[in-house]
């Protein structure tokens, strides 16, 4: 049997493999153990659940409990194995800027000495050093870029995987109120922004300190006053100027990442809802909102650029003043004979090159602030409470999932004030078909989430083949229980590839069989390119009924021992919905099925009907028995009959 663990997940979220098991098994499931995930879309908070989480090699990126320091300290800790490379990058960067300083100093000396017209051999050493510094500058810079980017991109790759895995763990139960554009922005732009912490903050600052100290030391050896002037100039340019430009951009930098997320959210909404917005006449208003968000981002970026320009201008001014200051203290020294005439050029020109190490620091300070906000947003995702705890050591999967048993089960979403399910009992044995009905919001889909272990029980037990589901890996549970969701995702690919998601190596015969059972084969055969027909984004080239039938065929092909069908006929017109329900009841005959629906038509063929209301089971039994007595099902039936046009 081929039962892909992820088919059910793929039906709810487009996802990769879930992380390896790793969460505390003994922790009592408690949906209130952390900040609700909807807070992701709202604002900064670094509350962490405080539980270990096994997301493989990147786990260290997020397991630092909050309060252990600054968010940037966590970014630094994430360097992990790349620390050695970053140290090497610092050395290479310092050698590159040091070579620039050396080049300036030696060439200054060379020109001065050459003017005295000594025998050319006296100059050979300086000529060679000039060449070496000139070549070294480019080579060291290239090597530094190579090493630092290699280290940082590796870190980013791990971090992005960690963020993705966390999102995957939080989805689907925890993502109902988060905004897609915002998540996308966190996953892409904010993670990318973290590279600047190393590339544009730590390494430039480290290089500035190393090269600045060396240049001051060297100049001080030649002439102590000149060393002091250079030290003062470097301090003003490297500390004072960044403070001034940083103060100008303080508020701007913190607003940059949220403004970028706002624009991403609005653009995503606009693109995905263009058809609906056009029909509702709301497109111009939404386009205006996008333009406004874009305008806000542009204003923020331009204020940030102003601060950068101010920093650049002030640095250049301080550099010029330092060169003049060095000349002013050096000239009397030459006059007094404390400094050789040929070294005057060295003392005056060295500051010019040494400032290369600090001119980027105003920008570095801005980057640091920007990175801090992005890091907060990334760590909010990494620290978001997960609705399901995976066991540290998963129990062995039972040979058969039967009986699949829920006893007194209650479940609650993170941040909710009441249980979505309350003391629910349900037993499934091989071949049994149960319909779960009830008004909207009664907890039907929540039951599906619990059965698939997308949401943990708050009280009661869920056992699969005698094993507590909490002791099983979530993936293992989903090899036994599969879902065909009401909003099943159809990929922008061919019919064949959409089906093969359920069973990678399925033959055309098996695909056709699944399509036939979902009553879609005649339609597929009538298409000019048959199974190779492209279905469009979200199945845009299919009708609503065809989309649901394709999802049903996929679920049938996956051959789950227990199949949960969550409102498969939702959003369809009554005739199509009833035809689809009838077909799927035929297709699932003899297969353990939980059919979640609020249409009662055709349910006389299932073994048991469970009626939910406000999360509780208010009635259960055979359809004919329930329909024959006064009670919730009978009232639903009467309402349904009244609503059907004569
Ligand atoms: N991710 C979530 N976070 C918080 N509350 C949720 C979440 N999902 C559902 N709920 C709440 O849980 C309750 C049960 O919702 P559920 O989706 O299970 O109902 P349902 O019977 O499937 O409704 P429908 O027939 O409309 O799909 C509702 O009050 C709903 O608002």
UniProtKB/TrEMBL annotation:
A single GO BP: glutathione transmembrane transport
Domain ABC transporter, first and last residues per copy: 406-639
Membrane topology: Multi-pass membrane protein
Gene Ontology cellular-component terms listed: plasma membrane
Ranges for domain ABC transmembrane type-1: 88-370
Keyword Nucleotide-binding set for record: yes
Keywords (A to Z) from UniProt: ATP-binding, Membrane, Nucleotide-binding, Transmembrane, Transmembrane helix
UniProt name for this protein: Thiol reductant ABC exporter subunit CydC
Organism: Streptomyces fulvorobeus
């Amino acid at each position: 049997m081929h039962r892909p663990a992820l088919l059910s997940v793929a039906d709810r979220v487009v996802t990769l493999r879930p992380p390896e098991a790793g969460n505390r098994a003994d922790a009592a499931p408690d949906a209130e153990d952390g900040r609700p995930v909807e807070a992701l879309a709202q604002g900064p908070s670094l509350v962490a659940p405080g539980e270990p989480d096994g997301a493989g090699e990147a786990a260290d990126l997020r397991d630092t409990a909050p309060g252990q320091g600054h968010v940037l300290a966590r970014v630094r800790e994430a360097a992990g194995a790349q620390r050695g490379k970053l140290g090497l990058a610092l050395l290479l960067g310092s050698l590159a800027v040091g070579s620039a300083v050396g080049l300036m100093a030696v060439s200054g000396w060379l020109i001065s000495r050459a003017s005295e017209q000594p025998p050319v051999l006296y100059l050979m050493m300086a000529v060679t050093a000039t060449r070496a510094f000139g070549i070294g500058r480019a080579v060291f810079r290239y090597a530094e870029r190579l090493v630092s980017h290699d280290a940082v991109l590796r870190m980013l790759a791990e971090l992005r995987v960690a963020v993705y895995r966390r999102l995957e763990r939080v989805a689907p139960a925890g993502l109902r109120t988060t905004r897609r554009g915002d998540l996308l922005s966190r996953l892409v732009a904010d993670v990318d922004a973290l590279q600047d912490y190393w590339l544009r903050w730590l390494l430039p600052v480290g290089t500035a300190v190393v090269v600045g100290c060396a240049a001051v030391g060297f100049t001080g050896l030649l002439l102590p006053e000149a060393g002091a002037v250079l030290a003062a100039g470097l301090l003003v340019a490297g500390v004072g100027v960044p403070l001034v430009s940083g103060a100008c951009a303080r508020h701007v930098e913190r607003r940059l990442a949220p403004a970028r997320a706002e624009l991403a959210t609005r653009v995503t909404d606009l693109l995905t809802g263009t058809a609906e917005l056009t029909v509702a006449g709301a497109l111009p208003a939404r386009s205006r909102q996008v333009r406004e968000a874009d305008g806000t981002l542009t204003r923020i970026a331009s204020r940030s650029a102003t601060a950068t320009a101010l920093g650049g201008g002030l640095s250049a001014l301080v550099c010029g003043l330092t060169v003049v200051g060095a000349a002013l203290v050096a000239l009397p020294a030459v006059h007094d004979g404390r400094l050789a005439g040929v070294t005057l050029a060295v003392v005056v020109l060295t500051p010019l090159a040494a400032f290369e190490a600090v001119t980027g620091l105003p920008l570095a300070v801005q980057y640091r602030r920007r990175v801090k906000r992005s890091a907060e947003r990334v760590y909010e995702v990494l620290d978001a409470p997960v609705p399901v705890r995976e066991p540290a050591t998963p129990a062995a999967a039972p040979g058969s999932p039967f009986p699949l048993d829920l006893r007194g089960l209650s479940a609650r979403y993170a941040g909710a004030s009441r249980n979505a399910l309350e003391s629910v009992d349900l037993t499934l044995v091989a071949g049994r078909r149960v319909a779960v009905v009830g008004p909207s919001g009664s907890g039907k889909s929540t039951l599906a989430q619990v059965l698939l272990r997308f949401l943990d029980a708050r009280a009661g037990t869920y056992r699969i083949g005698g094993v507590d589901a909490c002791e099983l890996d979530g993936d293992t549970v989903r090899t036994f229980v599969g879902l065909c969701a009401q909003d099943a995702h159809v990929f922008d690919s061919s019919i064949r590839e959409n089906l093969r998601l359920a069973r990678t190596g399925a033959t055309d015969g098996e695909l056709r069989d699944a399509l036939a059972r979902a009553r879609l084969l005649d339609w597929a055969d009538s298409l000019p390119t048959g199974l190779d027909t492209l279905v469009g984004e979200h199945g845009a080239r299919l009708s609503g009924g065809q989309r649901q039938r394709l999802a049903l065929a996929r679920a049938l092909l996956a051959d789950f021992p227990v199949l949960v069908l969550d409102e498969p006929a939702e959003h369809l017109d009554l005739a199509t919905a009833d035809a689809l329900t009838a077909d799927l009841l035929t297709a699932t005959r003899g297969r353990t099925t939980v059919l979640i629906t609020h249409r009662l038509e055709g349910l006389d063929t299932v073994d048991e009907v469970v009626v939910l209301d406000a999360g509780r089971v208010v009635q259960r039994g055979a359809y004919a028995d329930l329909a024959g007595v006064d009670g919730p099902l009978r009232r639903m039936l009467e309402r349904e009959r009244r609503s059907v046009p004569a």
